[in-house]
């Protein structure tokens, strides 16, 4: 058989614990517990900070979805019984459509597939 590859960790001497009087006794144990507690608190604080950031972004997305749903309702109510819109789009409809396009770009959707663009 082929010789085994050298093990890099085999030549490293084990780390010897360093004794100090500050880590000895009950006071040392209390310091160690306090240090671990402060690390845990920092970790929890960071997690809640990340969570609050996520909630803020979720609020923005919910507001955007609500606005888009309102636009969708407006556009479906503007469609007549025969499936076609009115004579010509009003400036309000054009502004709403431009706003929708801006929101879609914000979401990274440059050319969304819609029922109108895909057909039936």
TrEMBL record:
Stretches the record annotates as Disordered: 73-95
Keywords recorded for this protein, A-Z: Cytoplasm, Endosome, Protein transport, Transport
Location relative to the cell: Cytoplasm; Endosome
One GO MF term attached to the UniProt entry: phosphatidylinositol-3-phosphate binding
InterPro entries assigned: Snf8/Vps36, Vps36
Pfam families xref list: EAP30 (PF04157)
GO biological process: protein transport to vacuole involved in ubiquitin-dependent protein catabolic process via the multivesicular body sorting pathway
Chain's role: Component of the ESCRT-II complex (endosomal sorting complex required for transport II), which is required for multivesicular body (MVB) formation and sorting of endosomal cargo proteins into MVBs.
Family note: Belongs to the VPS36 family.
PANTHER family hit by this protein: VACUOLAR PROTEIN-SORTING-ASSOCIATED PROTEIN 36
Assembly information from the UniProt record: Component of the endosomal sorting complex required for transport II (ESCRT-II).
Name of this chain's protein: Vacuolar protein-sorting-associated protein 36
